[in-house]
Amino acid sequence: MMKENTSALTSANTVFNSLAKGVCPVCWLGRAFQNELIERLHTEDAEVVCNYHAWAIAAAAPASSAAEVFLSMLRGEGREKSRKEHASCDLCTSIREHEATRLRELATEMRRTRFSQWLERYGTLCSFHGKSLQFMVSEEHAWIITKVIKNNRQQLEELLEAFASKARSGEHTGGGALGRAAEFLVAQRGLIR
Predict the structure, then answer these.
(1) Rounded distance, CA 108 to CA 106, Å?
(2) Cβ contact 69:46 at 8 Å
(3) DSSP character at residue 187
(4) Count of CB atoms situated within 10 Å of the CB of 112
(5) Rounded distance between C-alpha atoms, residue 76 and residue 83, angstroms
(6) List of residues 6+ apart from 112 with CB closer than 8 A
(7) What are the distances in angstroms from CA 9 to CA 4, 33, 35, 64, 141?
(8) What does each C-alpha distance from 34 to 19, 62, 93, 191 come to in angstroms?
(9) In this prediction, what percent of the chain has a pLDDT beyond 90?
(10) Residue 47, Cα to own-chain centre: how many angstroms?
(11) What is the DSSP letter of 40?
């Protein structure tokens, strides 16, 4: 499990602070958290990892940290935990906990009238986090979330139609639309479902 000080690394990264990014704030914060976990990795943080996170560690963690984590795994130091608990990936577990915290934070913020009005007019939520959030808020706020998801879907359809038209004629600029569509449909890359 992650060290307690890891959560302090993202204390400035709140849902409220991430709203102006034009992306799902829970996805954006989840990705930032995941990057921080990998960049500040310790052996005890990753005794058991999934395929995705093993490759992420190999690609992005500081070389000395990655080597120590993999040496520990090769030597079987996390194996007892894995056998006893049928353990899942330590990084996935930490990310899911972080994601749940951010959803609760967003649900709390939605109680503020000005916040919910702003979200309704300008907000972005991916389909997954929007649907998850609907179960955490009042009926009135769930309706706002439905409206946000519908607006986001419509904007993405228009963006993708324009991109597809350009792509058919050989122009491939504006490919960020593909990443935005992927995030909307299945949440940010690495946020395992």
Answers:
(1) 5
(2) yes
(3) -
(4) 12
(5) 11
(6) none
(7) 10, 8, 11, 20, 30
(8) 18, 14, 11, 9
(9) 44
(10) 22
(11) T
Q: Give the other-Cβ count within 10 Å of 180's Cβ.
A: 20
d(CA 163, CA 165): 5
| Single-letter code of the amino acid located at 67 | A
* Domain residue spans of the chain: 19-186
Instruction: Write the CB contacts of 150 (distance below 8 Å, at least 6 apart in sequence).
Output: none
CA dist 62 and 66 (Å) reads: 6
Say how far residue 54 (Cα) sits from the centre of its chain: 17
Token digits of residue 155:
């904007």
Side-chain half-sphere exposure of 71, counting CA atoms within 13 A: 8
Helix axes 90-109, 25-39, angle to 10 degrees: 150
Residue type at 17? N
What's the full length of the chain, in residues?
Answer: 193
Separation of alpha carbons 177 and 156, rounded Å: 7
Show Cβ contacts of residue 43 under 8 Å, excluding neighbours closer than 6 positions. Answer: 65, 68, 69, 72, 77
Closest CA to 3 of 36, 38, 42: 42
Q: What is the pLDDT of residues 119-161, one digit of tens each?
A: 999 889 989 999 999 999 999 999 999 999 999 999 999 999 9
Which pLDDT score is estimated for 10? 47
Q: Are 181 and 161 in contact (CB under 8 A)?
A: no
Query: Rounded to two decimals, what is the model's pTM?
Result: 0.79
